[in-house]
Specification:
binds (2R)-2-hydroxypentanedioic acid, FAD-oxidored/transferase_4, alpha+beta, binds zinc ion, Alpha-Beta Plaits, oxidoreductase, Uridine Diphospho-n-acetylenolpyruvylglucosamine Reductase, domain 3, FAD, 21% strand, FAD-bd_oxidored_4_C, 18 strands
Length: 460
């Protein structure tokens, strides 16, 4: 008779919240990718750092793999547990631990939702500026593990820019405190940045101190209808040079079709191939007048065919819903996702080439483009045609991805801008990073996680 390794975990941590309930295994064993069937050994929900450390040490001794788990809103399968792993959910470690007014930092546990971080920062008259649609469900630990980006990167950068200090438990079970919130710290390698974006392969984030900043002035949202692809970047140039932008996003008519089918209102009478949502500081009448002048200029140039400027917060939110509702509207179709980036100047050439390729090779596919075009980050979702079965559809999409990798390679782009590699993009990592780089990454992983217990099978 084999004894479950969980018996020894239970002996070590009698008080640990541990579940093998079928509903829990299903719930915690998957993320938003929905492609893999969850099959974890069990779910552990530690209450503090000491419990996390004991779990990791136990994993090193028993060889049971760990899948760190946050809000599981990831789209690359990074939090999937399909091979008898122990899922370590940080969701009970979800408190704000402290605010430092002099340093303008907020110290939090990893399981706190991004939205709760926003609210806590606002209570102190400041903001934590990283933001994206999954704010209500995603957790800061997962944001750090994936170096999450989102809709404000154009102004504030990725999660990486806002991590003042990190406590991590490495794959070997050591507790490290990295950087201690120092603004300047020239004492060798900044290990904090190794953990940011490591997708749970080096250890678990168990505490983070986040840098906060001043809230921008009041803002307004502009939605433009854009008649052709080249005009997208012309509009971007005009907006960027004359307005203080905090977001510049685009989506296509196909994206609008799906959000409308999901309940959103059409913004304009006429349909247009492209739409832009941009948010800008509108503290006074001069800034608002400038926004209208930009709109008129774009109209005269033929870069936009229609536009709407938000007149209230409610209207701004409903314009944002057209963009932020896209992922949810597509989810029932289980789309195949690509999340790529190219340099901003290369966006039109890449878009043009990819659209030609897709129309030529896959005319039957419903391809939905949207994303953070102001950062050169485009999301490409392919919706499964009803007549193709799921496995054949994925195989076709993987062929598209291979072709796309080649286009990206020529344009010097990246196969994952902000969603990570996880399981979904693992096969394509070699097209984005050199052999030497991947060997170095493997070496770093072997140092921090010598027994290979942290999220095995993800990344490479
Ligand atoms: C977004 O920008 C997210 O809305 C999700 O990164 C993108 O669903 C997607 O492909
Ligand atoms: Zn995105």
């Amino acid at each position: 008779m084999t004894i479950s390794p969980l018996v020894s975990l239970r002996e070590r941590l009698p008080q640990l919240k541990l579940t093998t309930d079928a509903t829990d295994l299903e719930h915690y064993g998957r993320d938003w990718t929905r492609r893999w069937t969850p099959a974890p050994l069990a779910i552990a929900l530690p209450a503090d750092i000491a419990e996390v450390q004991t779990i990791v040490r136990w994993a090193n001794e028993t060889g049971v793999a760990i899948v760190p788990s946050g809000g599981r809103t990831g789209l690359s399968g990074g939090a999937v547990a399909a091979n008898g792993e122990l899922v370590v959910s940080l969701e009970r470690m979800n408190r704000v631990l402290g605010f430092d007014a002099a340093d303008r930092t907020l110290t939090v546990q990893p399981g706190i939702a991004l939205e709760a971080v926003h609210n806590a920062a606002r209570e102190h008259g400041l903001i934590y500026p990283v933001d994206f649609g999954a704010r209500g469900s995603c957790q800061i630990g997962g944001n750090i593990a994936t170096n999450a980006g989102g809709i404000r990167v154009i102004r504030y950068g990725n999660t990486r820019n806002w991590i003042a200090s990190l406590k991590v438990v490495t794959g070997a079970g050591e507790l490290l405190e990295l950087n201690r919130s120092l603004v300047k710290n020239a004492t060798g390698y900044d290990l904090r940045h190794l953990f940011i974006g490591s997708e749970g392969t080096l250890g678990l984030v168990v505490e983070a101190t986040l840098a906060l900043t001043e809230a921008p002035p009041a803002s307004q949202v502009l939605l433009f209808a854009v008649p052709h692809m080249q005009a997208l970047m012309q509009v971007f140039g005009a907006c960027r040079s004359r307005l203080q932008l905090s977001a510049f996003e685009f989506f296509t008519d196909r994206a609008l079709h799906h959000v409308r089918a999901h309940g959103a209102q059409a913004p304009f009478e006429q349909v247009s191939p492209y739409y832009v949502v941009t948010e800008f500081d509108a503290a006074d009448e001069a800034a608002q007048a400038e926004a209208l002048a930009v709109f008129e200029h774009c109209l005269e140039q033929g870069w936009v065919s229609d536009g709407v400027l938000s007149q209230s917060e409610a209207q701004a939110r409903s314009l944002w819903r057209l963009r932020e509702g896209i992922t949810e509207s597509l989810a029932p179709h289980k789309p195949y996702k690509n999340d790529i980036s190219v340099r901003i100047g290369v966006v039109p050439a890449f878009l043009q080439e990819m659209q030609e390729l897709l129309t030529r090779e896959y005319p039957q596919f419903d391809v939905v483009w949207f994303g953070h075009i102001g950062d050169g980050n485009l999301h490409i979702n392919i919706v499964k045609p009803a007549e193709i079965d799921y496995a054949a559809f994925i195989a076709e999409c993987e062929r598209v991805t291979e072709l796309m990798c080649e286009v990206l390679r020529r344009h010097g782009g990246s196969i994952s801008a902000e969603h990570g590699i996880g399981l979904v993009k693992k096969a394509y990592l070699a097209s984005a990073r050199s052999v030497e780089e991947i060997a170095l990454m493997r070496g770093i992983r072997a140092v921090l996680d010598p027994r290979g217990v942290m999220n095995p099978g993800k990344l490479f």
